Amino acid sequence: MVFGEDIGIDLGTASVLVYVKNKGIVLNESSVVAIEKQTGQLIAVGEEARQMLGRTPGSIVAIRPMREGVIADYEVTERMLKYFISKVIGSKALFKPRVMIGIPSGVTGVEQRAVKQAAIAAGAKQAFLIEEPLAAALGAGLEISEPRGSMVVDIGGGTTDIAVLSLGSIVTSKSIRIGGDNFDASLIRYMRRYHNLLIGERTAEQMKKDIGTAYPQKREHLTAEIRGRDLVSGLPRTITVTAREAFEAIKEAVESILSATKEVLEKTPPELSSDIMDKGIVLTGGGALLHGLDKYLSEHTHLPIYIAENPIQCVAMGTAKALINLDVLAKAHSAKNVR
Q1: 27, 316 in Cβ contact below 8 A?
Q2: Structural domains in the chain (count)
Q3: Domain of residue 243, CATH code
Q4: Parent domain of 198
Q5: Which end of the chain has the least Cβ crowding within 10 Å, N or C?
Q6: Are residues 129 and 193 in the same domain?
Q7: Domain presence at residue 141
């Protein structure tokens, strides 16, 4: 690839997805970077670095530069972006790409500038930002340009963004710093507190996929063998955990997502509320795949809940669509340009 391309990036806490115009999703990697402590040299980026989490020797550190949807380590984020952008466009590109990046709706102006500057430093010709719920709605195929209400709940690794959209912009929204990583952290705390077992991030993530649920009635029979280190003896130990226990562990985080969803519904104008009653709420992001979450939210909001066709890819696909519709977005003040 040698010519400038339009690139959409979902710069997530858990993973980075890159969408290239006319090519689709060309990169889906973990937001992890492994660095040599003494020299600062990059050892690995993405999935290869994620495999090292909790398994590195003292001389190497595996870092998640994004925390709760925002840049926690600017320098490492810039290097990670540079690596991914060059991986996508190649080293022989004649023109720098235009880049659209999805950001949580609650980020500050300082955090927005940090993301833009990182993209420019990483090789973008122009950097644009779009709020993630707007990008998620575009990626999910919702007709948000019409004067009708649409609602999206985008559950990422570090944040959950909830928004009601109409006429191409956000009418009311809320961003909470709870997402898939909080489910993992809750499982780690639960195992430590109730089983005296210390487990790592990767084990917690696998546990979430295997027996995690927001609606335990449908998973009562499921169990999983969980390995970790016994906090009393210090020795490795394997125990059997039930889906009901996994639910108890993540229940608080799930309730926080429900509470924020209700809060946005309460602030929604009546006419748009009527539209949402007809159309329902669309779930996007990796967290949407938590077993039973759609049923749990539907039961507590009394509204239809749908999971988007490709929930993990929605924000990345939406950022690419947003580049095509920059004029519309500029009018809605949802995308800003850095030249």
Answers
A1: no
A2: 3
A3: 3.90.640.10
A4: 180-250
A5: C
A6: no
A7: no
